[in-house]
């Protein structure tokens, strides 16, 4: 059995901590949030079953980068470069344009409802939703899995399906609104294109990660 390489896991976990700190800081220093959401969001129903893919996102934060690493170490560096840039850009936006949304009122009881309430509690106060990091990172999973050399096509399809379900889940459990989804995807795509052929950023992050 092949030994698990701890280095990419340590890098990934450190960057997740960095993302959490940045987000919490943006919540503290941002001003009065603007309520966002509109016509499209009013027609998207709340569906508690989508809390399942929403929570799976947290596992994919660790598993997808490791999957990329074992197949293509250079692409792992590019993925993590995109991760860092997405964090920085999104939190600058959060500070400049703090936002909030109206969540669903959960009146039924059950294990999925309980999990949803826990997620709601963790993300209270409801601040800095646009762009959606859930959506930005999920699109990155798709983009980088397909640009990874010698990757497994079947696993890439699974990553794609799960990522699309995650993006849908952000709206269906009322954690985000449609504009959050769109802006998150745009952010992810722009950062991906910037990183894709940028040797300067690649070399800087390769040195930073000591890889």
Tell me what the structure shows.
The chain has 211 residues and is mainly α. The chain is built from nine helices and two strands. The chain has helices at 6-29, 39-42, 51-71, 73-96, 111-122, 133-146, 153-172, 178-196, 199-209; strands at 34-35, 99-100. The protein has a two-stranded parallel sheet. The mean pLDDT is 90.
Strand count: 2
| Average pLDDT score | 90
Rg, Cα atoms, Å: 17 Å
Low-confidence stretches: none
Order of helical and strand elements: HEHHHEHHHHH
Strand content: under 5%
What structural category arises from helix and sheet content?
Answer: mainly alpha
Alpha-carbon distance between the two ends? 24 Å
Task: Name the strands of the widest sheet in spatial order.
Answer: 1-2
Number of helices: 9
Main β-sheet description: 2 strands, parallel
Helix content: over 70%
Shape: globular
Itemize the secondary structure elements and their pairings.
Elements: H1 6-29, E1 34-35, H2 39-42, H3 51-71, H4 73-96, E2 99-100, H5 111-122, H6 133-146, H7 153-172, H8 178-196, H9 199-209
Helix pairs in contact: 1-3, 1-4, 3-4, 3-6, 3-7, 4-6, 4-8, 4-9, 6-7, 6-8
